[in-house]
# Entry
Amino acid sequence: MTWSLYGSFLIIVVLVVLAPGPDTMVMLKNALAGGARGGLLAISGIVAGNLVQGSAAALGLGVLLTRSQPVFITLKWVGAAYLAYLGVQAIRGALRGRYQEVAEQQRGKASGFRRWREGFLSNITNPKVLVLYLSVLPQFLDPATTTTVDALMLAYTVAVLGGLWLLTLLFFVHRVRAWLNRRRVRRALDGATGTALIGFGAALALESS
# Structure
């Protein structure tokens, strides 16, 4: 693995990471509801899911999963349903608009794991992430010369850069949180986030396997 080859890989990964997707929407949903802590927990779950999928791709397990049609299709439908579920939750919150009441009800409840879980499940149940690893990584790996360590390094680079980008977005959201928490703005954002999540779920479900 040369530095020039790794640099080319970084350019592709940055372009992929900057494109908004389900992970971005899930982070935004949790950051709006749970503040910086909620966003961080969702990001840590997303990164954990990315590391699992990246490891599977680098170690050759991902190929087995994608070649098993029943497993791949099941994973696709589970992921689509979960994204739709999160989207409906966000839209229901926007329609109700009772943010202060909900915040008081949730005060003191341990919801940290739920936010981490939402991030992890949104990533791990999205087979498009695994397909991305399997389509990009082989272009930078030579079976005759590269090692498992090289493959893992490339895979973990995707997870790290994705996490850093989400942290950057979270920082921006936190800086303008006072404005975002205005009832009218919050309802609009929840509605847009929910619609986007349902859209991503529908696109995942309708995409040919």
In short: The chain is about 85% helix and 0% strand. The mean pLDDT is 81. The first helix runs from residue 3 to 18.
